[in-house]
Amino acid sequence: MNFPTSITYWSHFVTIAMFALGLLGFLLRRNAIVVLMCIELMLNAVNLFLIETSMRTNTPDGIILVVFVVTVAAAEVAVGLGIILNLYRLKGTVNLDHFKSLQG
Amino acid sequence: MLSSSHILVTMILLPLLGSFLNGIVIRPAFAKRAGVIATFFAASSFACAVFLFFSLSHDVKAINWSTNWFTVGEFHQQWGFKFDALTAVMALVVTGIGSLIHLYSIGYMAEERGPSRYFAYLNLFLFNMLVLIASDNLLGLFVGWEGVGLCSYLLIGYWYEDIDKAKAGMKAFLVNRIGDAGFLIGMFYCYQIFHTIRFDEIAQLLATSSQFDLHLLNIVAFFLFVGASGKSAQIPLYVWLPDAMAGPTPVSALIHAATMVTAGVYLICRMNFLYMLTADANVLIAWIGAGTALFAALIAMAQSDIKKVLAYSTVSQLGLMFLAVGSRAYFAAVFHLMTHAFFKALLFLGAGSVIHGLHGEQNIFNMGGLRKKMPGTFLTCLIATAAICGIPPLSGFFSKDTILFSALASGSTQSSLLWGVALVASTLTAFYMTRMFVLVFLGNYRGEAHPHESPWVMMLPLLILAVGSALTGFLGVPHGLHFMPNLMGHYLASVLVEFPEQATLISEHAAMFVATGLALFGISVGWFFYSRPSRAESAYKVLKPMHLIFSNKFWIDELYGIVFLAPFKAISSFFSSFVDPTVIDGLALLPVRISSGVSVIINVIQSGLVQFYLMILLLGGLWVLWSSLKGWVI
Q1: Is B39 helix (H, G, I), strand (E, B) or coil?
Q2: B474 and B424 part of one domain
């Protein structure tokens, strides 16, 4: 339970704030594009945390991981936007309350 | 080696085989031959009956055959058949007249499309009737009893496309159920008392022991009589028989006049050893018989349908037979049963011939003058009418006289009263039969059809039955007219109890003269009024209220409709409109309602919204995190 005292607290706050904002937006917003953007926000919050940790511990692992995350996020956005475009074609809206087919 | 008992079984099974052939095996291919096949099997059965009749003698009182049927606890039931004198008489009548009516049916049903079904039913009826009369125990008799009821139902509703005819069949079936319930109760009591339902054993027990409670015996007698009164159309269960005329006319002749309806009389004669002891039940039987005889004769006077007249006449004659058994004159009942089978079958077949010749016309007021157009039918019906009216020396005279006299001589306190009622009934019989005969055969033809005489297959049975109606009376010449011995009485003496003579020869002769005189009086009245239509018209004007009552059959059907049917229908509709949809369905649907109510609540969770699911996932994840870190943090 001994954290080093040289931790730069401000970067933690930013990370947590970004992630929390992303999570809240993801849960509460109804526009599919905004939801997708919120997911990106959470991913980037994690990225920021990874970079910060990597710098603090002087290891490259976090930074390498960030490169992968950014790559995957780009692919994910491409797929996600494609899905949203198709959803819009299907129903004429991107409001997530209108997509209930999981109810059966 | 073919023994007599094998012939007995063959006699019973031959009609079943015929029914099987016509009904199941060769239905489409030989439809035109159906009547010939059926008649062949009926006639073969008759041949067996004749053979068995001649194999009975002083030494051989009965022919037995039996095999195991089932065992319940200590109750061993057998399929047992016994051919004794009473069965012989019944079997000869059933198969003999049955064969003639089969033959007649070939002509009568010639225009039907598929008479196979008809002949299959007719043969099945013969089989069941033979089971009924040949069984040596009550249960076997009951099997035949129900079987003939079934065939009666099937044949009344033979033209089932006509809803009225189908309903008439149903009415016959349902009314008979009431009687059958009585029969069953009587049979159960019988077993309770005697621990057997075989006739021979009951007779032996009653003969050797006097420990039986007379009250209980009366109850048995009463319930068996309820069964008999259902089958034999006595008050209050007679209502089905007039409606049963919806069936084809040969069926009315065979089942509803000659054989099946006499099963009740047969049952009581078969149980005569019991009924000899039950004085109270006998009073009831005698009164119901006499009452039915009079009541039905009154109704018959005002009917315009030829078959309805004959139907009520049958009810009336059956009443006379019950009067005889109620007076313990079992021989008189069987004797009248036999002669009645001949002349009533003949009358029905004659009516069938008339209906056939007039292409379905049944109203006697649209007939008339058929004497010249149908001479054969006219002559044979003349004999039958004279026989039923009681003109000596035709058969009806002897048998009716035997009944009337035995009612008078039975020795009970009301015997003269019963005799009087029966006398009035037979006078009325003479009247309405003359009325019908005159309206149908004499005068001028009033209808529009073109009458023609029936083919020989129909005339031959008429002729044979006419000979029978004329001559069978000599088989049972009463004591009073001792010009020849009472052949049938001696023959049946081994089975039926001899009824005690309590009157003198002079009173017997006097009774005979009174009866014959009144019959002639009835005939002359009928002749007087109906030979000139104007006289009948003027009489009708005077007697209009009575005619209204008689032609509406005393409104008995309507009364039953109000008293029994209406409450029954009300209860039924209450159950069908309230109890079933509300209570029964409600109870059945209760689990459904409960589970669907619960699922409505649970359904809320499955919203289909991904974000809602993720919210719950998150909360769950937080809870897992919290509970795993809880101990660690604190």
Answers
A1: helix
A2: yes
Pair (B590, B615) in one structural domain? no
Mean of pLDDT values over B282-310:
92
Of the residues A19, A27, A38, the best mutation for testing chain B's interface (the one with the most B CB atoms within 10 Å of its CB) is A27
Cβ neighbour number for residue B167 with a 10 Å cutoff: 14
Q: What is the pLDDT of residues B340-375, one digit of tens each?
A: 999 999 999 999 999 888 888 888 888 888 888 888
Residue B197 and residue B72: Cα distance in Å, rounded?
Answer: 14
Does B396 score more than 70 pLDDT?
Answer: yes
The domain in which residue B625 lies consists of: 607-634
CA separation for the pair B378, B353 (Å, rounded): 10
B154 lies in some domain: no
- Same domain? B226 vs B260: yes
Q: Same domain for B63 and B201?
A: no
Best of A26, A39, A87, A102 to substitute, by most chain B Cβ atoms within 10 angstroms, is A102
- C-alpha span between B365 and B522 (Å, rounded): 20
Q: Flag whether B28 is in a domain.
A: yes
Does B358 lie in the same domain as B218? no
Residues B12 and B119 in one domain: yes
In a domain, B152, yes or no: no
Q: How far apart are CA B67 and CA B198, in angstroms?
A: 14
Q: Mark out chain A residues that contact chain B at CB-CB < 8 A.
A: 23, 26-28, 30, 35, 96-97, 99-104
Q: Is B170 part of a structural domain of the chain?
A: yes
Helix (H, G, I), strand (E, B) or coil at B95: helix
> For residues B423 and B429, what is the distance between their CA atoms, to the nearest angstrom?
10
SS (H, E, C) B577-631: HHHHHHHHHHHHHHHHHHHHHHHHHHHCCCCCCHHHHHHHHHHHHHHHHHHHHHH
Q: What is the pTM of this model?
A: 0.80
